[in-house]
Amino acid sequence: MLSAGRLSSILLQLTLLSAAQAGISPNAAGLGDAGSLLPGSRFPLIPKDLAARSPPIEPAFDRRQAAGDGCGSTAGNTSCGAGLCCSAAGLCGTGRDFCDAPDCQFEFGPACDANAVPSGANTTSVPRPRFGSVLYGGGGVTVCSEPGTIAITYDDGPYVYTSELLDVLSANGVPATFFVTSVNLHKGGVDNASTEWPGILLRMRDDGHQIASHTWSHQNLNDITSSQRFDQMVKDEMAFRNVLGYFPTYMRPPYNTCLRTAGCVDDLETLGYHIIKYNVDTLDYLNLTPDTIQNSKDIFSDALAGGDSNSSAFIVGNHDIHPQTVSNLTQFIIDEGKAQGYTFKTVGDCLGDPEGNWYRDPATGEAIGSSSGSISSSSAAAKRASRNPVAFLA
């Protein structure tokens, strides 16, 4: 769902595109100096009396495609030139509001973040043997199989709030499952050594959390081709391998949807993935203020009220890219769940799947656990403490 700021940006880009096609300058169109638009802050106009005090910025429209500036599905499927991104509004340019995944039309913008490629060998040819009893592909898993358990999950990170979230989880002794997207939100790739993300992934692992895939750039898997779906999963695998030394067998599709009719289910099954959905959606992405986050709390409370810890179990969907989820909602979920007698586990644990089955060896495709796929809690802790990641790459 587009934010109000992103929607305003798209509308502005459409207005500028229409003006350009009509041969009207931004000033004549009443839009002021287009060069004073700030890509990093969703394009607010800088008052002229403040322009001299403003830091240098990347001009939003300094590298547009020469032939009309339009691109994408609304411009005859035309592509931008090298080094350019095709925004959601169908305009070539550079900067966050053009290049951010998943909004950038990656098929028509060579520099879209989604088109970045991790370093190292491609994992497409890695064998995909099946192990364990959890469903591969199919309609997906929506609920823990062990009664009395809650698997709290987070999508779209890591992000600037994730370290704080890990502190909250650690203070409460609660494990979680993180469905990681590598290059969304212009964050530069989770295996990029110049960012904080590799360290956060390693901390997730060492703190006992489960790490799973949420695709490379958060594209809707029902709306892209089979080869593009493989690309979304394989590039995420490569990034995981670069940091952790292995990649997950668990994933959640963006927008919680993966249709067999679109070919999505078959592709993910071919790649050997457990498709994990949820039976409680807190809608935290719609409740972004201290007041409205109460709506998400009410959703969780209502779910617990509809069952009991002797027979019910939940997989709870959240997002660690939202500050209220991290600083407010998470503690409420933990406190409420424990008060109702529930135990918090990772998705793999609440499905009875040994930790060694959660990840594949990138060389053999086998589970990283023992040949039986079984790892005890004590040996898992020892393994986390002694496991050295391969050198992650810039």
TrEMBL record:
Disulfide bonds join 71-86, 80-92, 85-99. The keyword Metal-binding applies. CDD domains: CE4_ClCDA_like, ChtBD1. Residues 1-22 form the signal peptide. It holds the Pfam family Polysacc_deac_1. The keyword Hydrolase applies. GO terms for molecular function: chitin binding; hydrolase activity, acting on carbon-nitrogen (but not peptide) bonds; metal ion binding. Residues 361-394 are annotated as: Disordered. InterPro entries: Chitin-bd_1 (IPR001002), Chitin-binding_1_CS (IPR018371), Endochitinase-like_sf (IPR036861), Glyco_hydro/deAcase_b/a-brl (IPR011330), NODB_dom (IPR002509). Coiled coil: none annotated. Keywords: Carbohydrate metabolism, Chitin-binding, Cobalt, Disulfide bond, Hydrolase, Metal-binding, Signal. Residues 367-383 have a biased composition (Low complexity). Residues 148-345 form the NodB homology domain. Residues 68-114 form the Chitin-binding type-1 domain. Its cofactor is Co(2+). One of its GO terms (biological process) is carbohydrate metabolic process. PANTHER family: CHITIN DEACETYLASE. This is Carbohydrate esterase family 4 protein. It comes from Diplodia corticola.
